Write the structure tokens for this entry.
Amino acid sequence: MRKTVFALVAILLIATMMSPIIAQEERWDGADDLDVNPLACPVAEGEAAPETEEAPMDMPEYNGGQPTDAPNLAGQPIVLVDVPKLIGIGYFDATHLGMQQAAEELGNVTVIQGGTTEANIDDQVADIENYIAGGEVNGILFAANDPVAISPVLTRALEAGLHVVGYDANSTPEAREWFINQAEFNGIAKAMIDSLAAEKGPDASFGIVTSTFTTPNQARWIAEMWAYASNCYPDMTWLETLEAQEDSVLSFNQANTLINKYGDDLDGIFGMTSVATPSSADAVTQAGLCGEVAVIGLATPNAMKPYVNEGCVQSVVLWNPIDLGYAAVYVTRAIVDGEFGPGDTSVMAGRLGELQVVNGSEILLGAPFIFNAENINDFDF
């Protein structure tokens, strides 16, 4: 089905265009040099799962940073500032709501809203600088727009004695104490690619609409998606990845670019953000291509309900962002109280129970969740 010819076309386009078009023989490395770790391929119905030997898991050493001369505030009231990638979108409204829920439960935490209205790393750095200089906060909760560019200002926050915990999108490990990982990258990758294969077949061709090539979580998801697809669905073709910031109009236009550019060769669009996915679904709907072009992505259920209920979208992959923000506050409170620190393998997080430490200084929220027509109306965020 169009694979050989299109792969040759894609290779030629790499040499002539700035936006990355990837032939299936190549894999974009997610804008960094980290290794990929694709999960096992699905087992066909009726087949036995391959036998594997369970090797003991070695816990990597703690690789996060530590604040310098942080005041002892165990059991005392603390003020945290939430600095997401941007404010004013449903996803980060949900994470902030979870933070407020945790603060209310704990009773000795106040969370104030920081951040800016655009996903701009320079603005984000300036915002954090202001909170360091202001002296009114005891800790910073952040979701990075760029993992490297944000790290120097987070390091300055640690040096100023502030606690620093990331969620949603990481920095370099040494620039923060802990990172709340909403779902491991290879788990998200598997859920996304398996959903496309289920909808459009193992030889589907797809495009991607993401925010930026430097946004850390999206870059890693994409890298793991292609590694998993290459192992488990070698006939899939990755057409192109387009940047759309966190802008709904640009995301809609970029989805239309994929639709118009590839025509019948486009089987699916992956939206890598809570803005790109509903905008891509809107583009497919307006183009009259529901059922022809699958839209699969990461988004909040409320934004996707119209498209799922109308049958234009079958699969929305996510986790509960309210729980993500909630966990970030509980973890920070446990750090301040001396109940959780380097070398621990788990942490208690209120209604979420015990969360496990992975990768040295990350705390895993849980497995990804698939929203579909059967369950999406049960959620309201």
